[in-house]
């Protein structure tokens, strides 16, 4: 079972860099749907802070329909949107053997409205105070969701100990 963070037309290399780092630390696949607001050549990767790029399984998809063709079970696709009715914590992500995909929208405009409406039953949200902010930061949103998913799954494949046990730090 693999979890996927999917970014629809990401614009900001720093956000994608932070998300790649989260993916590297959580054994999560990163899917990017073009067009991207930056280049993923080596020069741009280093400038964007993507020094974890080689530790992340990355798939680049030309379009949203091209990405959707790679999803074997559409019931395991979750659209993360502030317009969703269901909180991200209200979903059970523990179905054995199935990959889960968490689709996040573009930083400026989110997901395409028609697509979001068509898949509204698969939409999840992170509660926020809309009176004070337009939206949470994309990289923070990805981290919030993926760690809830991993918590429910028992943090598979993640280290339980550190190189430096606490008793040796005294």
Automatic annotation (TrEMBL):
Question: Which enzyme class, named as a word?
Answer: transferase
Q: What does the entry list as the binding residues for S-adenosyl-L-methionine? A: 80, 105, 126
Q: Quick one: where is this thing mainly located?
A: cytoplasm
Supply one GO molecular-function term.
tRNA (5-carboxymethylaminomethyluridine(34)-2'-O)-methyltransferase activity
Keywords annotated in UniProt: Cytoplasm, Methyltransferase, S-adenosyl-L-methionine, Transferase, tRNA processing
InterPro entries reported in the protein's UniProt record: Alpha/beta_knot_MTases (IPR029028), SpoU_MeTrfase (IPR001537), TrmL (IPR016914), tRNA_m1G_MTases_N (IPR029026)
Q: Enumerate the Gene Ontology biological process terms.
A: wobble position ribose methylation
Example of a GO cellular component annotation carried by this entry: cytoplasm
User: Looking at the record's lineage, which domain of life comes first?
Assistant: Bacteria
Where does this one sit in the cell? Cytoplasm
Q: Which residues form the tRNA/rRNA methyltransferase SpoU type domain?
A: 4-147
Q: What is this enzyme's catalytic activity, as reactions?
A: cytidine(34) in tRNA + S-adenosyl-L-methionine = 2'-O-methylcytidine(34) in tRNA + S-adenosyl-L-homocysteine + H(+); 5-carboxymethylaminomethyluridine(34) in tRNA(Leu) + S-adenosyl-L-methionine = 5-carboxymethylaminomethyl-2'-O-methyluridine(34) in tRNA(Leu) + S-adenosyl-L-homocysteine + H(+)
Could you confirm whether the keyword NAD appears in this record?
A: no
Enzyme Commission number(s): 2.1.1.207
**Could you tell me what this protein does?**
Could methylate the ribose at the nucleotide 34 wobble position in tRNA.
Q: Which family is this sequence assigned to?
A: Belongs to the class IV-like SAM-binding methyltransferase superfamily. RNA methyltransferase TrmH family. TrmL subfamily.
Q: What PANTHER family has UniProt attached to this entry?
A: TRNA (CYTIDINE(34)-2'-O)-METHYLTRANSFERASE (PTHR42971)
What this protein is called in its record is: Putative tRNA (cytidine(34)-2'-O)-methyltransferase
Lineage of the organism: Bacteria, Bacillati, Bacillota, Bacilli, Lactobacillales
């Amino acid at each position: 079972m693999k979890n996927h963070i999917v970014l629809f037309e990401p614009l900001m290399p720093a956000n994608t860099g932070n998300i790649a780092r989260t993916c590297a630390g959580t054994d999560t696949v990163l899917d990017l749907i073009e067009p991207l607001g930056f280049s993923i050549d080596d020069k741009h990767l280093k400038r964007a802070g993507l020094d974890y790029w080689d530790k992340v399984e990355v798939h680049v998809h030309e379009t949203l329909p091209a990405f959707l063709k790679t999803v074997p079970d559409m019931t395991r696709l979750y659209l993360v949107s502030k317009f969703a009715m269901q909180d991200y914590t209200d979903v059970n992500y523990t179905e054995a053997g199935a990959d889960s995909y968490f689709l996040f929208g573009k930083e400026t405009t989110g997901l395409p409205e028609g697509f979001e409406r068509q898949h509204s039953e698969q939409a999840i949200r992170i509660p926020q105070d809309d009176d004070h902010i337009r939206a949470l930061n994309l990289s923070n949103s990805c981290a919030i969701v993926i760690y809830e998913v991993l918590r429910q799954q028992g943090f598979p494949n993640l280290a339980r100990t550190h190189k430096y046990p606490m008793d040796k730090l005294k």
